[in-house]
TrEMBL record:
It comes from the Bacteria. One of its GO terms (biological process) is DNA integration. InterPro entries: Integrase_cat-core, RNaseH-like_sf. Residues 17-83 form the Integrase catalytic domain. SUPFAM superfamilies: Ribonuclease H-like (SSF53098). This is Integrase catalytic domain-containing protein. Pfam families: rve_3.
Length: 104
């Protein structure tokens, strides 16, 4: 889940121990994640197809790749499950609990 506030997003990434990429002051730490993902897309998505008819084809191919990456491969760093499944599990475990003694 991406956060709309860049300061909150940066704080989240820092809290998870994600390092900033090299860049100018004020760059979002999320750029390091995007650089990693783009680095995977180039050899696995873009180069094998060689000719792309247009920008819409690249956008669709990228969306399909992101969907595949989030839902299909098993990742050993998160217990051999797909990232989407891990994210759902995380948010189920971290639902806010109602305050004791408060009736809604």
């Amino acid at each position: 889940m991406l956060l709309d506030d860049p300061f909150v997003f940066t704080a989240q990434l820092l809290g998870l121990g994600i390092e900033a990429s090299i860049g100018t002051v004020g760059d979002a730490l999320g750029s390091a994640l995007m650089e990693s993902h783009i680095g995977l897309c180039q050899p696995e998505l873009i180069k094998p197809r060689r000719a792309w008819p247009g920008l819409a084809d690249v956008e669709l191919g990228t969306a399909e790749r992101v969907d595949w990456f989030n839902n299909q491969p098993l990742h050993s760093a998160i217990g051999d499950i797909p990232p989407h499944e891990y994210e759902i599990s995380h948010y189920v475990q971290h639902q806010p609990q109602p305050a004791a003694g408060v009736n809604a």
